Every structure is written in structure tokens, then in C-alpha cells.
Amino acid sequence: MKLLVTGCSGFIGRFLCEQLLANGHSVRGTLLPTEAQSTIADRVEPTVVQPLGLTSDWCQALEDIETVIHLAARVHIMDDPSADPLTEFRKVNVEGTARLAQEAAKAGVKRLVFISSIKVNGEENVAAYTPDSPPNPTDPYGISKWEAEQALRKVEAETGLEVVIIRPTLVYGPGVKANFFTMLNTINKGIPLPFASIQNKRSLIYVGNLVDALATCATHHKAAGQTYLVSDGVDVSTPELIRRTASALGVSARLLHCPVTLMKLTGKLSGKSGTVNRLTGSLMVDSSKIRNELGWKPPFSMEEGLRETARWYKEDRKQFWG
User: Fold this and answer.
1) Long-range contacts of 43-49 (CB under 8 A, 24+ apart)
2) Are 193 and 179 in contact (CB under 8 A)?
3) Contact criterion met (CB below 8 Å) for 162 and 200
4) Which distant-in-sequence residues (6+ apart) come within 8 Å of 91 by Cβ?
């Protein structure tokens, strides 16, 4: 099978291309005009496409393609500097995605697998989200992903293009950046963290598990038209995640007790309520649907995923990022 992967040079894209190649597929990957071919995996056929939007030209990229896995997006940005972030997210994530789907259908592509976000369901819960849970996005990124899902379902209904939607939880693994990388740095340096009193549950997914799920959804006949939530299958509290990560790094977890109410008050006073809520709140998903319908199960345990992430952090993160 020949597949097109958008966003192939990104954190998830690199792993996905390697997985698809290992599975015996041919892979074409999209690059922005400013990206070097050296940023993508070996044996991936590069094709240059302008940034996602209403006028993106997909003709060359979609030639002879059977399935598209759409990773490229305007991602969630902390402290977004845009005057109107939602409009900017919609231009790329909604209008750009709809344009790709329409062009894919015209080109005779059979299936499009779309990586969405658990933010479509919400930011916090007390019972695990399922694909049937009502959407409740609360920020521009989550709203744009939900609207993109709806746009794809509309194209599916009008053209017959098979659409599969994946909503992952927080993704970690070699090459991870943002908050998870900050956590790695903090734990590795032995900096005390005041999180010992937190009693929450959060779902995560190792990048190796996510790309395996995406590869499965690209080929399994029962995946057509479905929406799946995916995770490692183990929910951990914030202090437990820190302990497991510290163990993978070969250092001691330095956890201090601090009342959660005080943490939330401090977050409110400092304008960091969102960060504190993510640390203290629960966000769980039920991934039983993809397991039952497609027979998928994560090939890596959380311990294995954290060990690989720690190994990368310790040994070759500079080489990974170039």
C-alpha cells in the first residue's frame, strides 16, 4: 500500500513513517517549503506542499495514494500571541483539513486517518471519556479539532471517502518537547516537586503505541467511519508518573507534600490555573473500543515507553533534534 503522511517530520510523524515502512508500505511525506529533506525518515518519498489552508495544492502529493494519515496541524500553543487564536486555528486545522479531504476524495484516495485530540472531549473528568462522550472542547485548539472532525464527516458523507478519527491523550517518547520535556529536565536535576499530595488519574500514550494504532487504523477494514480514543491502558497520578519517570532516568523522585487547595490558589493568583489544573486534575480515556473492534493492544508497556524516553533524554536528544 502507498500512503501519504502529512507532518512527517514532526515528533509523531517520524515514528509513524518508520512504522509504516517496517510494515512493508510505501510512504510519501509532505514537507513545507522551508523544511529540509534530512528531517524525514530514510526511504520516505518527500513532496513539498504549502502550509495547510484553503488554497493548498495537493495534486502531486496525492497521486497514486491509497490512504492518507493526516498529522499536520497548527498545534496547541501556550501563551498564544495571536490576537484571534481561534481564527488562526480554524484556517489550518479546519479549512486546511477539509481541503485535503476533498482533494483526496477527488484523487481516488480510499481512506483518511485523522489525528485529533482528547481536547475535543474536554480537559478534565471523573469518569473516563469514551468515543460516545459528548464533545466539550474548551480552548481554540480543541474547538478547531472538533470542527475539523465534523468537516471530515461531511466530506465522508458526500464523497464516500473513509474517515477514521483518533483522539490521543498526552503523547510522550523520544523527541518529546513542551511540558513533558520540562518534567524530564526537572526530575533529572533532582529539583523537589510539591506534588506528593495530588490524587488524580491521567491517561497517556507512548508514541510507539500511538503510531501502531494509526497504522492499524490505516489498513483494518472495520476502522472505516469510526472514532477511537487511545492510551497506554494504564492511568497514573501525577506523583506516580514522576516516580516512574525518575526510575527510568535512574534518579530518585523528590516529592514534597503541599495541599492541592494551596496549589490551585497559587495558580489562580499567578495566572497559571490551567497548568495547575492539568497537574492536579484527572483526564482518563477508555480505549476498549479500538481493542475490541480492531483487536489492537499497545505493543509497549508504560515502563518500556518511559525507559525509551529516558534513554533518549540521556544519550542522544541532540542528535534526534539535529
Assistant:
1) 44/5, 44/8, 44/17, 47/4, 49/6
2) no
3) no
4) 53, 54, 74
pLDDT digits (tens, 9 = 90+) for 170-204: 999 999 999 999 999 999 999 999 999 999 999 99
Q: What's the pTM value of the predicted model, to 2 decimals? A: 0.95
* Identity of the amino acid at 185: N
For the chain, how many helices (H) and strands (E)? Answer: 13, 10
- Is 141 among the catalytic positions? yes
- The percentage of the chain sitting over the pLDDT mark of 70, rounded to a whole number, equals 97
Bridge pairing between strands 235-236 and 202-206: antiparallel
At residue 108, does pLDDT exceed 50? yes
Residue 256 in grid coordinates: 514534597
Beta bridge partners of 29: 5, 46
DSSP 3-state assignment of 89?
helix
Res. 321: pLDDT tops 50: no
By the 8 A CB rule, do 49 and 31 touch?
yes
Helices (H), 30-139: 59-62, 85-89, 97-106
Which of these is catalytic: 129, 141, 172, 206?
141
**The three three-digit cell numbers of residue 64, written as one number:** 497514486
